[in-house]
């Protein structure tokens, strides 16, 4: 008795744990999106590039600040050179002997220890606006990196939308197929009973069995597709490939409003491609300003405070000193270099403007195409609903007629096949609406986690 109770409690615990584990694996589409964004390697690479561009902005800002450098050298000479000057009689202006002698002496040309230390200070005063334009370029590059990151995230979100609703539609299709299997199994049983009663032929029984086998074979295909879809979703969200996964949605639910899917002015401004090309055009303009600044006066200030041994006259050890100054560079003549560089920069600005205009046109076309697709998918869904209603009615009618023996098994099986096909079209149409809606949101720049 104790063993029986223990075994029962253990079974309850195992079943409860399995139920909890299953509940823990239920995941919503929002959770899938967030996990996919966190896991995706391409998004991580774009995020690293964005962080790098932020560092570049800080670097360009520091270039406008004064810089301080320190350098020091030390030299030890084992056998320093010396110059010996012999004594001599000093001459006079008349060339006669003066009787005054200069004693011999020795002068150090090198010392055992030679060293110096220098602290330098420099500050650019005027570079023709080059530093400010360089900072603007870095800021534009940072914004481009941010937009590039957002584009990568949008691609991930769209992929998750497609994977998720495909998986849900497969699960819903599996339920429909299971209903078909149950229905056909009942038909086979009914036909078998009728055959044994001598009402129908063996052929009618075999027809029903063939359709039942086809439904079972379709069940295997759907089950495999579901497993593959779950594996693909696990890969996208960074989970183990074979980890159990259950979407929070078990059926595809759609709600739409035709007026919502429309083109409006300003929608394109939310697209990251427009932001990127606009920034590239601004970068080209800044590069033109930098080209012009190269031919303007360049003014910089500097100062140095240093200590050296020996002193600058090589007469004593140790000397502190300092220098300060301002440097000015003025370009004078460069054989037309300025004109050619200006032409190159202007063509870059013009090219960027053309690319922006072309992209606006292509994105406008993309938005309209997405609107047409989503409205077409909604219309198709309406048609599949009508077809499904008719298939339901037809299946019920043929089933009743067969019971009244005024219809054949073939009529019932054809009605069942029509019903299953209508169910599959209806489920596919619902998933297509969801995916087309996601494509529309991507086209107008509003596809978010």
TrEMBL record:
GO terms for molecular function: efflux transmembrane transporter activity; porin activity. Its main location: membrane. It holds the Pfam family OEP. InterPro entries: OMP_efflux, TolC-like. It is found in: Cell outer membrane. Residues 1-23 form the signal peptide. Residues 374-412 form a coiled coil. GO terms for cellular component: cell outer membrane; efflux pump complex. Keywords: Cell outer membrane, Coiled coil, Membrane, Signal, Transmembrane, Transmembrane beta strand, Transport. The keyword S-adenosyl-L-methionine does not apply. Belongs to the outer membrane factor (OMF) (TC 1.B.17) family. PANTHER family: OUTER MEMBRANE PROTEIN TOLC. This is Outer membrane protein TolC. It comes from Mangrovibacterium diazotrophicum. The lineage of its organism: Bacteria, Pseudomonadati, Bacteroidota, Bacteroidia, Marinilabiliales.
